[in-house]
Amino acid sequence: MSGNRKINVGSLTERPSHERRRETRYPFTSAVEVVLRETETRIQGRTSDLSRGGCFLDTASCFPAGSTVTIRLTKDHRRFEGDGEVVYSLVGMGMGVKFTAAEIEQLGTVEKWVAEISGEALPEPARPQSSDQSCAQKTPGDEKYLVLSELVMELMRERVLSNVKGQAMLQKLKRTETLA
Fold it and tell me: Which residues pair with 71 in a beta bridge?
């Protein structure tokens, strides 16, 4: 991470104290590396959900609750890195981590992910695999993909379609578009 100033994430997600979770969690899968600050011990795994305030990590081993960690999430071409605290550990399952501080650009990445999975925004298009594809002309299939993606996202926003089903449909749509 660059030398930019970190922002306390808790101040951005304040809610009444009687609520245990401050933010809505959404199903989200990404690669994760979590590093115990005291010893630099690293654990790798994947996320199973994400919110603006933290995430759950599916890992074979866990750090104890209260541990201070650095967390790195990677999905497609985007990455988040910030400070966190292990809120709870479930041996053999994983751990819940709340974000405590991150650079503003890093928080923007989490915001984009949450907006996409909550239906507030369209997913960012995947980057082309080769330079030849970046010059490819738009085809009618591209237009259909965009229209269908927007439709699914709108149905999720209006709560006609659940987030889980909507995400599954978007993934299927993405796979069929890349095969075309």
Answer: 34, 82
Q: Which residue has the tokens 């923007």?
A: 108
Check whether domain 6-117 has CATH 2.40.10.220, yes or no: yes
Delimit the domains of the chain by residue range.
6-117, 137-179
Question: Are the C-beta atoms of 110 and 26 separated by less than 8 Å?
Answer: no
**Pairwise CA distance, residues 34 & 71, whole Å:** 4
35-76 pLDDT, tens digit per residue, is 999 999 999 999 999 999 999 999 999 999 999 999 999 998
C-alpha separations of 36 from 64, 66, 94, 102, 166 in Å: 10, 11, 14, 16, 35
C-alpha 13, offset from chain centre: 16
Q: What is the DSSP string of 20-39?
A: S-SS--EE---EEEEEETTT
Of these ranges, 15-24, 92-101, 117-126, the one predicted with the greatest mean pLDDT is 92-101
Global confidence as pTM = 0.61
Residue 101 contacts residue 82 (beta carbons within 8 Å): yes
Q: H-helix or E-strand containing 41?
A: none
